[in-house]
Amino acid sequence: MEIRVSPTRMQLQLLKKRHVMAVRGHKLLKDKLDELMKHFLELVRRDRDLREQIDDRLGAAFRGFLIARGAMSAAAVDAALMYPKETISLRAGQRHIMNVAVPSLEWTFEHEGDATNIYPYGFAYTSTELDTAIRLLSEAMPSLVELAEVEKAVELLADEIEKTRRRVNALEYVLIPSLEQSIKYITMKLDEAERGNLTRLMKVKEIVGERGA
Amino acid sequence: MCMHKIAVIGDEDSILGFRALGVSVFPARSGKEAETALRAAARQDYAVIYITEGYAGEIIDVITEYSRKPLPVVLTIPDLSGNRGAAMEKIRRTVEKALGADILFGKEGNA
Prior knowledge:
heterodimer; A: Helix Hairpins; two-stranded antiparallel sheet; B: alpha/beta; Rossmann fold; 4-stranded parallel beta sheet; 23% strand; disordered C terminus
């Protein structure tokens, strides 16, 4: 597919400028893609590790709850957990990786330092399984929040990588070749016109020379 | 930077314990309920929303709606019935989409 242009010097100039621009853009985008890829792979690895960790920990915590519910009546568990003492304060901001906005999360337990605060009940009427389960859950919390951050970043970066790759490919396989083709077309046309002009001049000179003789 | 909250949506048995940690818990009994809870939570200032895998599978379309914006983060977590591998599958698919090939998990086998 070539760009239809009139074969003039002016058009040739313009096309050459566009070609230079396209090549530069292509190089920049390609560099961006490489860098995005680097960050992406790092994040994916982290994401996968965290995932594995979380799956194990939550599995254990949930099993604990199941046992606790078996040991106590459902109503008793509900009552025990009715009014949590602890609250989590979460601050969500944004961070930029290669100009992609990703969330950054900071969080703390409001009553940091006092480990008993995660148990919102007296110990008299609850089973120990419930305590264990809640402790496991609270230990999983830091990775859980980090996982949220990392997994979101992975998603957003994947999006950006896809977009950038499309652009790189469009430049590399469509725009730049078609510009090169048009430039070649114009150059050949101009050369052809030049040669035509030359032969005409030579012919004219010959005719003039014959008359003079 | 302002204050945000964390929400958990899922079947009550799995997620009850989160309540002790001060996380908002929205029990759901069906995919439909989970979807309603998710939309409601996303409108409020919940920055992170966890959904148990059992329901996440049913409302995957709604979840992907939120994947383009930085906030809120919607995330699946395993539930009582055990890990079904949906989360890993999602990571794998994201990698495939970005790189065009599953180089990360494929490489694991050889390494």
